[in-house]
């Protein structure tokens, strides 16, 4: 079983990306299971995921503090036992630092063959997020294997370039891609460098 | 030893730790608000609607664990009412909105409007709270909760004392940031801080006097001179330093000082990582507070900065309790005592022992704490 974690601040487009990746990954014949942080306004419980009958587990994070990490381990163990999927795609709450989450998972589930962290950047709200929650955003960037600057349809080229500069300073090695998840632009390439 | 003497001995041990004085045994506390009913065979549904039962489950857990000095935060009154008032949020209840034995769930939704900031600033916190609460709490349950606190809570506390266990916190509070962040929901609150910080600040400032008063009243009612001051949304790992310095720290400072002035020890129950700002705690008077981190803050850094200045309570990580093994627990406690003890340390689960903690891990926590916590 392999693990893909889709991190990013609240509303950065995690579910939108997850749904699209789930569709294309399934089409290439991979068995998928999904773990969602909580049923938000825009959940995964409709559309393609339901049609394809993919197993979806909810992770309750009424208090993100501590229950989240251990809840994830238990959930992953259960999914592995019941479905043995090729990949589990996890969307933690937008307040999670994926580094801590992955550390816990790697400690307690050493059998996971490969784990990847995709961090989404909300280009439309970049300035606000930098001013207010910079430490959290930076932690999300640092933990990433791949970083997608999302919502590029909302900002102009110069802004995207500036965001990429800061992103690169936070993480020297991650692949950086530009996407617009609502239109699907850039997602094919993203999947290529993720899996 | 008779329970009364045992209680005295344990209470003194805790007080000595707070004053960073030598102890015979490092004080050890239980905390596991959802674990207690699970272990005692009570559903979470009953735990949330039967306050006497909830107390009995907590006390039963202490007795089953045996040699612990007392309990950090536990469910006092109707549990979900506490959560709703603390975060201005609806809470999904087991047995009603969720299965009988599910974990209660705080609903992260915007319940408070922008105009509510102005109402709080104009009229103060208490009037606003009273008009607002019906939006998030079943008011019948709220009335029952308030009645229980006045009429029944003191009797329940006596039972803990009679059994020899020290209830560590008498009142629950936090800073205004945490409350309004819950009510507005994180996304909107952070946006508000960006767009109109003055408007937010006016509301936060107006909340302080009533919040302090409520915490003092709760401590007076319980007769316990320690108050839980929680925080996680306002953690250093979350917020930019400039905002933390303006919207978080001054409030912890002012509320702590107001409590200290009344002889109350604030228990700074800080979930998430607060390492960046630990040095600010030196601004508080020496040996008057307890720092209670959850395993994310660098507790060794805290010891280095606060040694002799502030007691540290913690921080067995929740993950070890639920998915680790007794050996993991032993290793963690041994290292913790070596690096952070023996003075000014109180051993306790970080955050809250989760609902699915393994009982053998809790038992190992107590055994390890007593083994490594004995000061020769
Ligand atoms: N303009 C634009 N909007 C987008 C894009 N991607 C996502 N959105 C919108 O952003 C909003 C949030 O998207 P979600 O996919 O729900 O984001 P999320 O990160 O899962 O949100 P939470 O789970 O609430 O943290 C939705 O209204 C999406 O339609 C994008 O590329 N461009
Ligand atoms: Mg989502």
Provide structural commentary.
Chain A is an alpha/beta fold and 195 residues long. Chain A has a single domain, classed as Rossmann fold. Chain A has helices spanning 14-27, 47-51, 67-83, 98-108, 126-142, 157-170, 187-194; strands at 2-8, 32-36, 56-58, 87-91, 114-122, 146-150, 175-178. In chain A, strand 6, helix 6 (157-170) and strand 7 (175-178) form a beta-alpha-beta unit. The model of chain A has no long low-confidence stretch (mean pLDDT 89). Chain B is α/β, with parallel strands linked by helices. Chain B has one domain: TIM Barrel (Alpha-Beta Barrel), CATH 3.20.20.210. In chain B, 53% of the residues lie in helices and 11% in strands. Chain B is built from 17 helices and 11 strands. In chain B, strand 9 (290-293), helix 14 (299-306) and strand 10 (311-316) form a beta-alpha-beta unit. In chain B, helix 6 (114-123) crosses helix 12 (197-222). The two termini of chain B are 21 Å apart. The A-B interface holds A 10-11, 38, 60, 62-67, 69-71, 73-74, 94-95, 97, 100, 104, 107-108, 128-136, 139 and B 91-92, 103-108, 186-187, 190-191, 193-194, 232-233, 236-240, 243, 271-273, 276, 294-296, 317-319, 321-324, 350-352, 354-356. The complex binds guanosine-5'-triphosphate (GTP) and magnesium ion.
